[in-house]
Write a structure and sequence with these properties.
The chain is α/β, with parallel strands linked by helices. The protein has 9 helices and 7 strands. The chain has a 5-stranded mixed β-sheet, sandwiched between helices. The chain starts with a helix and ends in a 5-residue tail after the last helix. InterPro entries: Papain-like_cys_pep_sf, Peptidase_C48_C, SENP3_5_cons_dom.
Length: about 260
């Protein structure tokens, strides 16, 4: 029965990276076979199965959602201490928008680079079919060199907020976003949004204790803020959160 579950899990997620013991226990419970004394057997069976041929990832495994496609190389960035790549960040942002019925707008991770390189004219087409001023929250993942940060915009209060899991502040990024919003307001003839913006640096938020989890922190900030949940996670939760994100991406929806 365990092998049956492990095989279906492997086919669904392309590898055993997101597998936890509780996944197996939950499956056995559903099947009416939840004797806790068998936990050692479960560990042994999981180890045996993973050590077999199935321990090699499925060649050509792909997840597609809207215009996003993830391969095993992308999903592999969620394993252990790897740095998340843009593809993971952007598809997860798509799932956040779907979950919030597009009341939240998530900007592609390449947006800020393009804004810096080409100015407003270089990015104004990105929102051709999007009315930013009807959203309640905007999310801008910011990738500078080797570090991810997050800028959010609460439209009702015209507040630009900066979140960083190492307490670093790249002030020019919030200025860039404020100028962008003012230009967008002029372009879309939204007089109320052409002035009155305020910038705030958010402190007292969960912080990373290594050099590799900044992308995971950014996605968890985004997830919590978009569904109005408090930021109640920590560095110790990162292995679990990485596995959950992996599953959500393969399932193409956020878990409850």
């Amino acid at each position: 029965m365990i092998h049956e579950f492990l095989e279906s899990f492997y086919m669904k997620y392309g590898s055993f990276i997101p597998l936890t013991e509780s996944d197996v226990l939950e499956y056995l419970k559903k099947k009416g076979n939840s004797d806790p004394s068998k936990e050692l057997d479960i560990k042994r069976e999981m180890a045996r199965y993973r050590a077999g041929l199935a321990s090699a990832p499925i060649a050509g495994f792909m997840v597609s959602y809207n215009k996003h496609t993830l391969g095993l190389e992308d999903l592999g960035t969620l394993e252990e201490q790897n740095w998340l790549n843009d593809q993971i960040i952007n598809m997860y942002g798509e799932l956040i928008m779907e979950t919030t019925q597009h009341k939240v707008h998530f900007f592609n991770s390449f947006f800020h680079k393009q804004l810096v390189a080409k100015g407003y004219d270089g990015v104004k087409r990105w929102t051709k079919k999007v009315d930013l001023f009807s959203k309640w929250l905007l999310l801008f993942p910011i990738h500078l060199e080797i570090h991810w940060s997050l800028i959010t915009v609460t439209m009702a209060t015209k507040t630009i907020s900066y979140y960083d899991s190492q307490g670093i502040v790249f002030r020019h990024t919030t200025d860039n976003i404020m100028k962008y919003l003012q230009s967008e307001a002029r372009e879309k003839q939204q007089a109320a949004f052409q002035k009155g913006w305020k910038i705030t640096i958010i402190k007292g938020i969960p912080q990373q204790k290594n050099d590799s989890d900044c992308g995971v922190f950014v996605l968890e900030y985004c997830r919590c803020l978009s569904v109005k949940q408090p930021l109640l996670f920590s560095q110790e939760d990162m292995p679990r959160i990485r596995k959950r994100i992996h599953k959500e991406l393969c399932d193409c929806h956020l878990s409850d």
